[in-house]
Amino acid sequence: MAWHVVIAGGGFGGLYAARTLERILPPQSARITVVNDVNFMLYTPLLPGAAAGTLEPRHVVVPLREELSSADLRLGSVVGARPHENVLQVQQPEGAVEDLHYDHLVVALGSITRIFPIPGLAEHGIGFKTLPEAIAIRNRLLRCFEIAENMEDGRERAAYLTFVFVGAGYAGVEGLAELQDFAADAIDLYPRCKVTGTRFMMVEARDRLMGEIPAPLADFALRELRGRGIEVRLSTQLAEVESDRIRLSTGEWIPTHTLAWTAGVKAHPVVGEMGLPLSRTGRIEVDSFLQVKGLPNVWAIGDNAAVPDAAQKYKGETPPTAQHAMRQGRTVARNVAATIGAVGRKRKFTYKTLGVFVDMGRSQAVAQTLGIRWRGRPAWFLARTYHVLLMPSMNRRARLITDWTIGLFFGRDASELGMVGHPPGLHGQSSGGTGEDGTPVESDGFGGRAASPAQEPGEPGIDPGIVTRGNARWREAKPAVDPAADADAVESGDPAA
Ligand SMILES: Cc1cc2nc3c(=O)[nH]c(=O)nc-3n(C[C@H](O)[C@H](O)[C@H](O)COP(=O)(O)OP(=O)(O)OC[C@H]3O[C@@H](n4cnc5c(N)ncnc54)[C@H](O)[C@@H]3O)c2cc1C
Known about the structure:
By secondary structure, the protein is an alpha/beta fold. The chain is built from 13 helices and 27 strands.
């Protein structure tokens, strides 16, 4: 009988593992099932482009069914596992939890935003990790422009035109730079806002930007940001957040209605419910063959795995990057194939980063490839070429190139479509609307209900039975997935949980 290989998570790691298995395994030797909570893979390096309106949101995702040829896609949310019985527990979209039996399991469930207990952060901050969050930030900016345009009080208008990002890693720097670029285009449509001007600020606890890239490149990025008028506060922390202002560790209050939190990620919390050994960073402990310690038929890759890093002589863990996840996906596929005796032999994961690209919008980027450092337009051109080449399938590549080309000639669309896909029920057609029980729903001033951690700002009247997890929206099961885990997620306000 064919082996059953189950891959939990269809992101960078999971998709590359599935495609490699499809390619190398002899026909009929194994059944491959990919379990993912949405039917697409999010191409995160292009998320800032979606937030800035340079790319259509649909063009930064890869439909999994188009990419998988013989593997099955099971739409469902992994909620636990019983590894000693070879069972993965999957919650189906309608809420029922099923036991999925496997011979080999690859865990590739990624990560979520890591937040700290800063007063007000969970209630008022927006993450920048998922597609709903990226689109929410774009909508928030446009909504702030609309509100500010009708405001008489100059000080209040300035608060609506102030945008703060906390955390200067890849996601923060790219997100802030792209968003500011978008704002610089869009503000021409708002004469009063143009007189006041926008204020963009990056707050970073360390004394430099992007610890992941060499210091000279990070310095270039810093100069580029400051040259554009972006205030960069290094060695500064966020201390408190209120709905209309934030406080920094310096004691300074900054009036703002938009705080994007991009200060790091942590392994997806469901890995803590799977009975697997975890490292002190909360990632699944694996050896350099990507095999979970003590469980020879369970493997883990990507952001949720503590993979010994060959670049640090196996003393540290590989960083949470797509480059690593993809390559770990390929390695794990070969190792699973070798373990079931189908083909080849097991190999260690030995990848060392070959290059980095940080796209900063406005035809500017920094990059390092094979030891060569690039800046400015050449780096920007390289970054875009790299992403076009890496994006799976010609059809997706063509969409990227078309969006970028249209953006170059015609600029970006400034419509705020937060309501798309979420119509108010027929009983609640007003902006605030009513809840399912018919009671009025309080508006948050941004066209949505009063802030709820499981819901993106800018979304009107969401069905309260629907919860948002990462990129997925689910009808809440009865009983809930795991009441304790859910309570944690809500308490931490982490929309990606
Ligand atoms: C804004 C941003 C920009 C980035 N830019 C870069 C970059 O330029 N270069 C780079 O190398 N890296 C970049 N990264 C990091 C990169 O996105 C991650 O390291 C990479 O996605 C990790 O791959 P993964 O397979 O571990 O997880 P993911 O790609 O996140 O895949 C996890 C999958 O599991 C699914 N899932 C989650 N929970 C469940 C569940 N309970 N049940 C079922 N399915 C579930 C998710 O929907 C997802 O499809 C960026 C990240 C962000 C947020």
